[in-house]
Amino acid sequence: MTTLFISSQVMAMGISAPTAEINPATNKVSIAIDNPDTKSAHLITINVDKIDSPYTGKSLKRANDEVLYTPSKLLLSPGQKARIQFNYKGPKDDTERYYAIKWQDEAISSSDHPDSQKVTQVMAVAKISTILVAPPINPNYSAKYDSGKNGITNSGNVSFKAVAYGDCIKPSPETNNICQENSYVGPGREYVFKMVKISSKHSSLGFWQGNDFKTVNK
């Protein structure tokens, strides 16, 4: 006989990256997960949906034919770590594609009941969603500064992390009038900076192109 209980006094699984990117050279990426719980095992179930963008998260379909992964279900003992490998089998063109990795985390434990029945306890169920990005085969990094909006526009075909540093829009003694702000910006999208006054001569603006930092002309 199996008996189910629900409790919130457990720790959810750990995931190494809220956003992971497929390596274009191998069409693969692996994500590290762990069970920080010292008392309960965790049953992890994984599904992947294709989505329109990370900004809306609208599911288009299950991505079974475009993203393969193994294992799709595993049991992590207390303190155990594991790596899940994702293999991209989708289209290879000049379009960036996005997927939602949906992790279901069930904290479980079992014990022997005095009447010789095995009792299984589901302590809690957590659902976590992370983003998987498949970059275009020919990435084009391009950005434009919008002085009227104090923003940056991604005019290329691949996402980048924009970084601004310099004078604060709202100076305060706590910041010494020095602010830093960053955000991921998808293709065709604009990010308006809320903390850094980009037009100031003391401010700088740029973005990360892989491991290289590129300055954007103001």
- The CATH superfamily of the largest domain is identified as Immunoglobulins
End-to-end CA span: 69 Å
- Helix-strand category: mainly beta
Secondary-structure element pattern, one letter each? EEEEEEEEEEEEEEEEE
Question: Can you count the helices?
Answer: 0
Tell me about the largest β-sheet. 6 strands, mixed
Taken together, the total number of domains comes to 2
Mean pLDDT: 90
**What is the radius of gyration computed over CA atoms, rounded to a whole number of angstroms?**
22 Å
Shape: globular
Question: What is the second-level CATH architecture of the largest domain?
Answer: Sandwich
How would you describe what is shown here?
Belongs to the EcpB/EcpE family. Keywords: Chaperone, Fimbrium biogenesis, Signal. Residues 145-214 form the EcpB C-terminal domain. The chain is mainly β and 218 residues long. It folds into 2 domains: 14-134, Immunoglobulin-like (Sandwich), CATH 2.60.40; 143-215, no CATH class. The chain is 0% helix and 52% strand. It contains no helices and 17 strands. The chain has strands at residues 14-15, 19-21, 28-34, 41-51, 59-62, 67-70, 73-76, 81-88, 97-112, 118-134, 143-146, 151-154, 160-167, 178-185, 190-192, 204-209, 212-215. Strands 2, 4, 5, 7, 9 and 10 form a 6-stranded mixed sheet that branches. The chain has a 4-stranded antiparallel sheet with strand order 1-3-8-6, with no helix packed on it. It has a 4-stranded antiparallel sheet with strand order 14-13-16-17, with no helix packed on it. A hairpin with a 5-residue loop joins strand 9 and strand 10 (118-134). The radius of gyration is 22 Å and the shape is globular.
